[in-house]
Amino acid sequence: LRYLAPDPEHPGLLFSLAATAGTAALVWAYLWMRARPERERPLLGPLRSFLWSLAVYLLALPGWIGLLLLNGALMQALTGQAPEQDVVHELRQAEGASLLAALLFAVALQPLLEEVIFRGYLWRHLAARADFGPARALLVSALAFASFHDPVVWLPILYLGGLFGWVYWRSGRLEQAVFVHVLHNGLGTLAALLPLRLFGEP
Q1: 2-19 residue pLDDT tens
Q2: Which of 64, 95, 63, 111 is nearest to 193 (CA)?
Q3: I need a surface site. Which of 32, 62, 103, 181 has the fewest CB within 10 A?
Q4: By the 8 A CB rule, do 120 and 174 touch?
């Protein structure tokens, strides 16, 4: 996201980059889901699957908040300052076209790409192996997911990796993991930006 940081002189470049990458990711995800074997077809219908995924996320949300607070306390004790992800810092600094491009990336493009890579490919590949299976693949994919994020929020990110993977495992639909991921990033972005935009406070 830092490469989509504020740059008022080149807003068109930001939009082009985000639009191109978003289109490519959507086509990639669509083709991958079309190629999914029949044995992975989910039992629930699309609407019930989305409602189920929403309920799972809401039930899991208190656990994530608890880990976020614990992680914040640990980082405060270890470093003397509250942790802040680079992505949150960049979003708070962005304005205008840069902000729109950054929002598109953080709320839509990033979740889609991460779900295709960590759940659609990594979890699916490992779960099919006899020496792994779904549960062990879930742990490995969650660890890999967390390792690609800012280490200052490693614990809550690991929790989210497990949650997104479990949603995909139990629903059989990659789009459900994408939905929960987009929902979480959207709410997190709103929580990070709203106080600043309304009251001028972080």
Answers
A1: 444 444 444 444 555 555
A2: 95
A3: 62
A4: yes
Q: How far is CA 93 from CA 9, 70, 81, 104, 170, in A?
A: 15, 26, 19, 15, 38
Cα–Cα nearest to 94, from 201, 16, 196, 198:
196
Distance CA 81, CA 150 (A): 15
Q: Name the amino acid, one letter, at 27.
A: V
**pLDDT of 93-126, one tens digit each?**
767 777 788 788 888 899 999 999 999 999 999 9
Whether this model's pTM surpasses 0.90: no
What does the alpha-carbon distance between residue 140 and residue 118 come to, in Å, rounded to a whole number?
A: 10
Sign of the C-alpha dihedral computed for residues 14, 147, 151 and 153 taken in this order: positive
Q: Which residue in 175, 48, 188, 146 sits closest to 167, CA to CA?
A: 175
